[in-house]
Write a structure and sequence with these properties.
Blueprint: E1 2-6, E2 18-25, H1 34-39, E3 42-44, E4 51-53, E5 61-65, E6 70-73, E7 78-82, H2 87-96, E8 99-100, H3 112-118, E9 121-122, E10 125-126, E11 131-138, E12 143-148, E13 165-173, E14 175-176, H4 179-196, H5 216-222, E15 229-230, E16 233-235, E17 243-245, H6 251-269, E18 278-280
Parallel strand pairs: 2-5, 3-5, 4-18
Antiparallel strand pairs: 1-2, 6-7, 7-13, 8-14, 9-10, 11-12, 11-13, 15-16, 16-17
The chain binds flavin-adenine dinucleotide.
Flavin-adenine dinucleotide (FAD) binds next to strand 3, helix 3, strand 9 and strand 13.
Length: 284
């Protein structure tokens, strides 16, 4: 189905103007839009928890998958999960089936497709630790492909070989575990997030990537930028790598704040921070 949509209504940052060509697609009709998708630029949107859309909107097509299947194969010790499944729901599904090692997803408000693309992670775990393979629709060939984990070349918050491909589902390892361990990990992870991250306000998680050499939040904090703000978008006082927007703020202000913080950290430490959040559409 094609819709006209205000992008600020469908992302965690609540930024963005209009998109006239927003396609919500199911697994059954994925092939029906071949021509539409081949004629314009496309952006594939999951839960919108890692993106900031331009205040001017988006001129191409936005493809929003609605793939919600979820099945557990006991004998193969694997779960096949649709790309649109919400990550905390997947963590709870694992817990309810006494399956271990998905507790790290409990506080990440994205979809499986977004987690594959971004190699989402927390507490030392990454999505790539549990992926066996990914099923994807190739927008160039209009074929469905199975990509093995090795073909996706995962690294910190990144994957390869998924450009112009819609993730349909992921097949994940699913091993039985101790229910007490699963429960206690979930509890710990929820408590840790509450303690360290700003809650229930507009943001998209970490703005910059960390590396093994530094924590972006620490560099921003040591640069004296906690609380610094531009037109309603502010470096969180609780966690310096979270930039919080107030109601009605603009993504252009986030863009300016990100550029400013990057410049200050670069001048002070000679380190060029790399963005983890994605700016989509026109910014200058
Ligand atoms: C409060 C908060 C806390 C967060 N904490 C963490 C954290 O601890 N760790 C972490 O890694 N991230 C974290 N994030 C960021 C974000 O939730 C993750 O990056 C998540 O994986 C993004 O998923 P999404 O569905 O929202 O993707 P979107 O933001 O919609 O898109 C992100 C990217 O994935 C692509 N994509 C999405 N779906 C598909 C698909 N089906 N096929 C192909 N490509 C697709 C998009 O094109 C885009 O390139 C946090 C965000 C918030 C708001």
């Amino acid at each position: 189905m094609k819709y006209k949509i205000k992008l600020s209504n469908i992302t965690t940052y609540k930024f963005g103007g209009y998109c006239d060509s927003f396609y919500k697609i199911s697994e059954d009709d994925i092939g029906s839009f071949k021509e539409v998708f081949s004629n314009r630029e496309n952006f594939i949107l999951g839960k919108g928890s890692n993106v900031a859309f331009s205040d001017d909107g988006y001129e191409g097509n936005i493809i929003n998958p609605n793939f919600n299947s979820l099945t557990y194969n006991d004998s193969l010790s694997e779960v096949r999960v649709g790309a649109s499944v919400f990550l905390p729901d997947l963590a709870r599904y694992y817990k309810n089936n006494n399956l271990v090692n998905m507790e790290f997803l409990i506080g990440i408000p994205g979809s499986v497709g977004g987690a594959v693309k971004m190699n989402a992670g927390a507490y030392g775990w990454e999505f790539s630790d549990v992926i066996k393979s990914v099923e994807a629709y190739n927008l160039e060939t209009n074929n469905i492909e199975i990509l093995l984990k090795e073909e996706l070349n995962f690294s910190y918050r990144s994957s390869e070989n998924l450009d112009r491909k819609i993730v349909i589902s992921a097949t994940l390892s699913a091993d039985k575990g101790d229910p007490n361990l699963i429960r206690s990990r979930l509890k710990e992870n929820i408590a840790y997030r509450k303690k360290t991250q700003p809650a229930a306000i507009y943001n998209a998680g970490s703005v910059f990537k960390n590396t093994k050499d530094y924590s972006a939040g620490e560099l921003i904090d040591k640069s004296g930028l906690k609380g610094y703000s531009i037109d309603g978008v502010k470096v969180s006082n609780k966690h310096a790598n979270f930039f919080i927007a107030s109601k009605g703020a603009h993504s252009s202000s986030l863009y300016k704040l990100v550029s400013h913080v990057k410049e200050v950290v670069d001048n002070k430490y000679g380190i060029s921070l790399e963005k983890e959040i994605m700016f989509i559409g026109k910014f200058d």
